[in-house]
Design brief:
Number of domains of chain A: 2
Number of strands of chain A: 14
CATH topology of chain B: Rossmann fold
Number of helices of chain A: 13
Distance between the termini of chain B: 63 Å
Shape of chain A: globular
Bound molecules: thiamine diphosphate, magnesium ion
Radius of gyration of chain B: 20 Å
Largest interface: A-B, 41 and 46 residues
Oligomer: heterodimer
Helix content of chain A: 25-40%
Strand order of the largest sheet of chain A: 3-2-4-5-7-6-12
CATH topology of the largest domain in chain A: Rossmann fold
Number of strands of chain B: 8
Number of helices of chain B: 10
CATH class of the largest domain in chain A: Alpha Beta
CATH superfamily of the largest domain in chain A: Thiamin diphosphate (ThDP)-binding fold, Pyr/PP domains
CATH architecture of the largest domain in chain A: 3-Layer(aba) Sandwich
Structural class of chain B: alpha/beta
Chain lengths: 327, 335
């Protein structure tokens, strides 16, 4: 097992998949000569050349759509969005084209494409550059959506995404690119649609995805000091959603707090909380807790931007409420 | 040279020096971690904002730009104190600490931002021009954007709209030759952006963006056209001295390239013109420089001594009137 960063894990996944399949290409802003705005594609231009690693103009709608076209015609593009904030310019191509072409063609077309880049709150970037947009993609049938929270999953999920015959949106995090973790040395795939129990416990289930998994683990450590044994479930895949793993955890603990760094309404977290409340109704000892972003655009001021986001403390408070231990 | 010309030249010099010194100070404060996130400095491009915005009628005209906005904000007359306080994230900042460097606004001065999404300000600006025409204010709108932004669909859609509806808009592409680490020629089908205007039946003009007087002349012509319902595209060829933002190691270009452009420094070029006209005055220049330094230092002192915004302010500035929110609040103070 090598200890590598989340960034290196993504890089290794793309490197291996490009070596394995000559149809895999990478395109996006600054991905080639600059090694990627966040250096995720470092070295790939040198290895695979400018025909396979392409710097695009700043034209998200154009190159995302071009990727979709290439995908229905035999290429397997990985489209890097410098951040998901800018992918909003390409929303139409993802929602109306990538997600719909198989269906509208009666199964005649495949759209094997990966859209990837950092999503979620960053630091000191205000409202347009720092927002959780997972819900936008998770809403759409025809797409698959994954959110790796550690280097091993980043590696294994991206490889699976590149091999998948459907469009897959990968939610990375700028704030996690430097995080280190163990990644198996040999080839390793993480199946899309499988959650993982990253900490087992018996007192309450904390269900999260992406960066907030870290807050859930921090909260679990704080709760342990108070004698509360929390289980942490990392969804890893938002669409499809691994209800089996989530519900098994909640049936065991009888309580749940769901965490999502997006705004609360129409979010993945709200949907998961609803599914738990419905499916595990008999097993629940308390209403399902939900910690989300505050329902406001992100402010620039650092104290304020931290106040807007989920945190270990907010999760602990929600757990205490679910245990009727609120001070 | 006429006396009035000399007066104007000195004013233009002063405006450019103020921006240059403000940016130097902002860069220092970033180094001291008083400012965080993305901070895009305008050094090298001063002649564009000063030459263009200085020719506008601040009573009725409007200005929009991207995230590299400190220079345009100052040229539009925004308070340096309010800008610096915004960069510091203080409640006395122009956006009460909500926007930061990329999102400066001062509606009272006709300065409508400060946009972080590449190219997004262009259709918005054309909409402002629509309102000016609709409301018959007689005003025009100038929108600034980069050599990277010009390839966005937003630019092309907006230019066509401006033309078919005869809107008083001037689209100013500041070709500083780099979009982050990408040289403009690598991603453009044409090597003269002003040509793009002809596809939409609009007048296009290329101007030396290091020459504040040339920019000013182009602005006067463009604003006249715009007010008559003829939108204009201007390409101002310029150069950015600093990295794209504060975290850019600039491996994509050589020191020599930057030095080459520094020889055409807009402030230096203007000083040469003042000298050639026999209107140079060393003491006057020193006084302008000192005043600009004092302005920047004063802005820092103001920002430094200003309070942080209170936590409940996250619930403010989201809606007009009584706000409402989805989900449960984490903090008191949300009504
Ligand atoms: C839609 C969108 N895509 C990408 C980015 C990231 N980004 C910020 S600035 C920039 C380069 C823009 O270059 P240019 O238009 O030449 O302006 P300059 O920075 O040179 O002033 C990029 C790619 C963004 N902010 N918005
Ligand atoms: Mg540029």
């Amino acid at each position: 097992m090598a200890v590598i960063s989340y960034r290196e894990a993504l890089n290794r996944a793309m490197d291996e998949e490009m070596a394995r399949d000559p149809m895999v290409v990478l395109m996006g802003e600054e991905v080639a000569q600059y090694d990627g705005a966040y250096k995720v594609s470092r070295g790939l231009l040198g290895k695979y050349g400018p025909e396979r690693v392409l710097d695009t103009p700043i034209t998200e709608l154009g190159f995302t759509g071009l990727g979709v076209g290439a995908a229905i015609a035999g290429v397997r593009p990985v489209v890097e969005w410098m951040t998901h904030n800018f992918a909003l310019l390409a929303l139409d191509q993802v929602v109306n084209e990538a997600a719909k072409l198989r269906h509208m063609s009666g199964g005649g077309l495949s759209v094997p494409i990966v859209f990837r880049g950092p999503n979620g709150p960053a630091e000191y970037l205000s409202s347009q550059h720092s927002q959780g947009l997972a819900s936008y993609w998770a809403h759409v049938p025809g797409l698959k959506v994954v959110a790796p929270a550690n280097p091993a999953d980043a590696y294994g999920l991206l490889k699976s995404a590149i091999r998948d015959d459907d469009p897959v949106v990968v939610l990375e995090s700028e704030m996690m690119y430097g995080d280190k973790g163990e990644v198996p040395d040999g080839e390793y795939l993480v199946q899309i649609g499988k959650a993982s129990v990253v900490r087992s416990g018996s007192g309450i289930s904390l269900v999260a995805f992406g960066r907030p998994v870290k807050y859930a683990l921090e909260a679990a450590a704080l709760l342990e000091k108070r004698g509360i044994d929390a289980e942490v479930v990392d969804l890893r895949s938002l669409r499809p959603l691994d209800e089996e793993t989530v519900m098994a955890s909640v049936r065991k603990t009888g309580r749940a707090v769901v965490v999502d760094e997006s705004w609360p309404a129409a979010s993945v977290g709200a949907y998961v909380a609803h599914r738990i409340a419905t499916v595990c109704f008999d097993a629940l000892d308390a209403p399902v807790g939900f910690v989300s972003s505050e329902d406001v655009p992100m402010p620039y001021n650092h104290a304020l931007e931290l106040a807007v986001q989920p945190s270990a403390d907010k999760i602990v408070a929600a757990v205490l409420r679910a245990l009727y231990l609120e001070e | 040279m006429k006396k009035t010309d000399a007066k104007l030249y000195w004013e233009l010099r002063n405006d450019m020096v103020r921006i240059r010194r403000f940016e130097e100070k902002a860069g220092q404060m970033y180094g001291l971690r008083k400012i965080g996130g993305f901070c895009h400095l305008y050094n090298g491009q001063e002649a564009v904002a000063v030459g263009f915005i200085g020719a506008m009628d601040h009573e009725r005209d409007k200005v929009l730009t991207g995230y590299r906005d400190h220079g345009h904000a100052l040229a539009a007359g925004m308070s340096p104190d309010a800008i610096m306080a915004e960069l510091f994230g203080k409640v006395t900042g122009s956006s009460r600490g909500k926007g930061g460097s990329m999102h400066l606004f001062d509606p009272g001065k006709g300065f409508l931002g400060g946009n972080g999404i590449v190219g997004a300000q262009i259709p918005v600006a054309v909409g402002v021009a629509f309102a000016q025409k609709y409301r018959k204010t007689g005003g025009a709108t100038a929108v600034f954007f980069g050599d990277g932004a010009i390839h966005q669909g937003a630019f092309h859609e907006a230019l066509n709209l401006a033309k078919i509806w005869d809107l008083p808009a001037v689209l100013v592409c500041e070709n500083n030759q780099w979009g982050m680490g990408t040289n403009w020629k690598r991603v453009s089908a044409v090597e003269d952006f002003s040509l793009m205007a002809s596809a939409y039946g609009v007048r296009g003009e290329r101007v030396d963006g290091m020459d504040v007087l040339a920019v000013r002349d182009a602005a006067v012509r463009a604003l006249k056209d715009a007010r008559a319902g003829r939108p204009v595209l201007i390409e101002a060829r310029t150069y950015r001295y600093k990295g794209h933002s504060m975290s850019d190691p600039q491996k994509y270009r050589t020191r020599d390239e930057v030095d080459e452009y520094r020889k055409q420094d807009p402030i230096y070029l203007l000083e040469e013109k003042i000298k050639a006209a026999g209107a140079w005055d060393e003491a006057r220049a020193a006084a302008q420089d000192a005043a600009a330094d004092a302005m920047a230092a004063g802005a820092v002192a103001f920002a430094e001594s200003s309070p942080e915004p209170a936590p409940h302010t996250i619930y403010e500035d989201v809606y007009a009137g009584r706000p409402f929110f989805m989900g449960e609040p984490a903090y008191a103070g949300r009504n």
